[in-house]
TrEMBL record:
Lineage of origin: Bacteria, Pseudomonadati, Acidobacteriota, Vicinamibacteria, Vicinamibacterales
UniProt KW tRNA-binding keyword: no
InterPro entries with a match to the protein in the record: ATP-NAD_kinase_N (IPR017438), Diacylglycerol/lipid_kinase (IPR005218), Diacylglycerol_kinase_cat_dom (IPR001206), Lipid_Phosphate_FormReg (IPR050187), NAD/diacylglycerol_kinase_sf (IPR016064), YegS/DAGK_C (IPR045540)
Name of the protein described by the UniProt record: Lipid kinase BmrU
Keyword annotations of the record: ATP-binding, Kinase, Lipid biosynthesis, Lipid metabolism, Magnesium, Metal-binding, Nucleotide-binding, Phospholipid biosynthesis, Phospholipid metabolism, Transferase
Record GO cellular component, one term: plasma membrane
Names of required cofactors: Mg(2+)
MF-aspect GO terms: ATP binding; kinase activity; metal ion binding
Start and end residues of each DAGKc domain: 1-133
């Protein structure tokens, strides 16, 4: 079996005693013990490296692609694999690993590689927004600002730096007046700090913004959160981790195959934690069963 291995050596925290420079060697060794006969490895340095590695894998007729990285690296790899039928194995290596947690993939290195090679293939939905793909979450407004600060402030990875980014952006966040349309229904208008279009359930670390979302139901879960005040954080912040965010007064939730979101000011969006250009209007569409992931018990 020929496996193309794509590793982001900069993603996430250090794993055990394994130096970042040894990630490729460690995963390659385990892949061979599980049946890989040929391994083509790529260490990413910058944006576009992972997508180029996928193109080479497809051109060469590889049997499988395995990626070690965070949700952003996974997004770049998966976006080049959509509708190809190529099996993708995921070794979660990010700070929050929201996609892997939501899909029920193991987070430990050895268990994840085992599933990547010997698990069962599962076809899952992906999302498309203004020509860009996402796998897990697409957030407009406050959480996009948090993602931008987290990605550009040279902070160390992990939950504490992410919470630091949240607190920093919270002090200056201003709600937007959003217009949201779900499928063919009448649009609703709402003042909110953020709107999240969810294919998966969580940001990571158990922060479940859409606990009922499913990767293979052909629908998005849409969540709009009103002004995040100190009183709301103190009274309801825990609900994000208990899966009861929808019970917070003023939170809007809905489900749809097609979602239109617009606002007067151009604001950024994050796609699986990677920030994209600011725009005033976006259309989200589900791409059913477009990605084949190695999942399940191995």
């Amino acid at each position: 079996m020929t496996v193309d291995l794509i590793v982001n050596p900069a993603s996430g925290p250090v794993v055990g005693r394994l130096p970042r420079r040894d990630r490729v060697h460690a995963v390659s060794h385990q892949l061979r013990t599980l049946g890989a006969t040929t391994i083509r490895a790529t260490e990413t340095v910058g944006h576009g490296d992972a997508a180029e590695a996928v193109r080479r894998a497809l051109d060469a007729g590889s049997d499988r692609v395995v990626v070690w990285g965070g949700d952003g690296t996974l997004n770049e790899v998966a976006s080049s694999l959509l509708d190809t039928g190529m099996r993708l194995g995921v070794v979660p290596g990010g700070s929050g690993n929201g996609f892997a947690r939501g899909l029920g993939l193991p987070l430990g290195l050895h268990a994840a590689v085992h599933v990547a090679m010997l698990g069962s293939p599962r076809d899952i939905d992906t999302g498309l927004v203004n020509g860009r793909s996402f796998l897990n979450l697409a957030g407009i407004g406050f959480d996009a600002a948090v993602a931008e600060r987290f990605n550009t402030s040279n902070l160390r990875r992990g939950l504490v730096p992410y919470l630091t980014s949240i607190l920093h952006e919270w002090r200056t966040a201003a709600p937007q007046h959003f217009r949201i349309r779900l499928d063919e229904s009448m649009p609703i208008e709402i003042d909110a700090d953020l709107v999240v279009v969810c294919n998966g359930q969580q940001y990571g670390h158990g922060a479940r913004v859409a606990p009922e979302a499913s990767f293979d139901d052909g629908l998005f879960d849409v969540v709009a959160v009103p002004r995040i005040t100190a009183a709301r954080i103190l009274g309801h912040g825990w609900r994000l981790f208990s899966g009861t965010l929808a019970q917070v007064p003023g939170v809007f939730t809905g489900r749809a195959r097609r979602v239109e979101v617009s606002q007067a000011n151009a604001v950024p969006i994050h796609l699986d934690g990677e920030v994209a250009n600011a725009e005033t209007a976006r259309t989200f569409e589900v791409r059913p069963g477009s990605l084949r992931i190695m999942a399940g018990n191995a």
